[in-house]
Structures
1.
Amino acid sequence: MRTPIAAANWKMNFGPRQAEQFIAAIREPLGAVSGAEVVLFPPFISLDSAYRAIQGTAIGLGAQNLSEHPGGAFTGETSAIMVAELCRWVIAGHSERRQYYGETDELVRQKTLAALSADLSPIVCVGERLEDREANLAERVITTQIRGSLGGLPAEAIGRVVVAYEPVWAIGTGRAATRQDAEDIAQLIRALVGEQYGQGIADALRILYGGSVTAANVTEFVASPHLDGALVGTASLRPEFVDIARAIAAAKTA
Ligand code: PEP
């Protein structure tokens, strides 16, 4: 059985003090969620205060990005090994990084490799743009992204990789994908990973949906046997995230 995941991508919100206050307000009910891994992804500057605030709970912590380099003269960057001092998780290839910072599949692959070499669990994001979907190119785009971002990873570490399907047009728009669309792409992703790494790895792979997930629609997605949780942006900045995490756990333990 694949343990479901409720992941909170705070993006560029909540500085150290706000992070501490927000976690203080939700740590009891969020920490009490059982049957799902709950992971917060604060901005880098807030990781330390979040790390302190979650002590004594089962809430996990991750960074929103990492450098592909192991260390050295890369001003403003953070290596996987540094992230691993506070976190077990990291996001690689979020569409905002692909879109605004020019991250390519090859760069995402290098970041994924760096994460795995530091014993982190990377959540690798893929997703098509609106024009791709409208041109019926969604499957082709996802195929290219999966092959490019997940190629040549060490077989013994691939089990730590999680994939998030996040259609770009659904992120922060209030327009979530349909369950059918998300399921179709999740099945495609699993098949592609199966081609690269074998059926056993593919069957164990956790695939999340992300894009305008709320407490009102999350169950629709996670009731699907093909989806193992959600990567949540906007709604993760509100106490509503507790309800989302509960709904994810409930759907998979029902
Ligand atoms: C995200 O940033 O990963 C995301 C899914 O955002 P939102 O939930 O706001 O669509």
2.
Amino acid sequence: MLAKDNAPLHTVDLIRKKRDGGALNAREIEFLVAGAASESIPLEQLSAWLMAAWLNGLTLDETRALTLAMRDSGEKFSSSGLGKKAVDKHSTGGVGDKTSFLVAPVVAACGVAVPMISGRALGHTGGTLDKLEAIPGYRTALTLKEFEAVLDLCGASIVSQTPALVPADRVLYALRDRTGTVENPGLICASILSKKLAAGLDALVLDVKTGSGAFLRKREDAEYLAALMVTTAEAAGTRTVALLTDMGQPLGRTAGNWIEVVECVELMRGDWPERSEDLRELSLRLAGWMIHLGGKADTPEKGYWAATGALADGSALRVFLEMVKAQGGEVAVFDDLKGFHKPGATRVLEAWQKGFVAEWDVTDLGWAVQRLGAGREKAGEPVDPHAGIEFHVKRGERVEKGQPLATLYATAPDLLAEPVELIKKATVIAEYPPEAVPLVSHIFARENAEAYLRDAIR
Ligand code: URA
């Protein structure tokens, strides 16, 4: 037994084992994760293992071992010196999903620290870090000391994985983006939770997307992911809840980089247009839970009202601007939100018939955003801060032929044609309005998540 435990490991054997439907043990997974973090395993081998894992799935034990190994792949942040509870949120990824820019300052303004380690654009979805870096000067790759200093000063800080902080996710995340290995519950669970558990949180709120723009579109797959993440984080000692939320239309009215930051700053300044209402409501629901779990409200509902106050009275905006400044960002750009926006090319897409906007394939809308220049084709490429789409209608709205549906902002004119076709293909204009879909359809906490998982596995 001992000899077997100490036997040398070879990456190719682990790839073959996974390829043939086997399950890796914790030691084998730790070996792969250490090789990813130190960049000593070549990317082609990591890619092959990722694809084998994607095709054959990860067992519960593999998922948990992967999560913990990735969490432990670098330095960890300890929130104990902050003198208050630390709570964060993370979304499984969507289009126009910019709640972090509202939630982090709102929750910090209510007295709960938000140490947030985020990601870049992944597949068809935008990345919090790419959006923040649209603010000139904003630095996402902070040292642990700098991260702590910003948290001390502002109560919230949004940073990236680095060679020191969850380095395994830094490598695997970028690789999954390029190898078509994103949409797998075990890989998503380990990627998200490794970042969150490395941030030394007291509690975590997960926003698990379901619908045509989610990585796991089907409701039962999203429920499984939510239950998997809640039980995995709880087993690692972090109080966690997951909200199952609608991604059947882009959240708010923008999807891109700078334009998403603008939509949030406008909300924090008190400008609440109807088409941003889902963004505002979801951000307040997530913030309400975080404030509750952070001990500053007896119930999530009371947390929601505290969050509403922080958004309305300007305190969230103050925290946001302080955080941007503390991370090197130029806050002067917020003096002229529209003036700073300089896309290389613009096109307004009009409705080709009258009717109701009945359905959207939001994944295709996401690819349209990426191909306008907001995302990258190759790892490490710069993204265009000005690229994106502003939507002039929400699902269920009635449109007349010729009415503007969306304005597209591209890096260059030749990048407009493919996204225009993608949006046309993705949009169903029908005679009748669609049924209303609830923004938050279910909440998982430890007990119902454990029961769900037991049933799902049986
Ligand atoms: N967000 C992450 O951080 N990782 C994923 O795999 C999906 C969403």
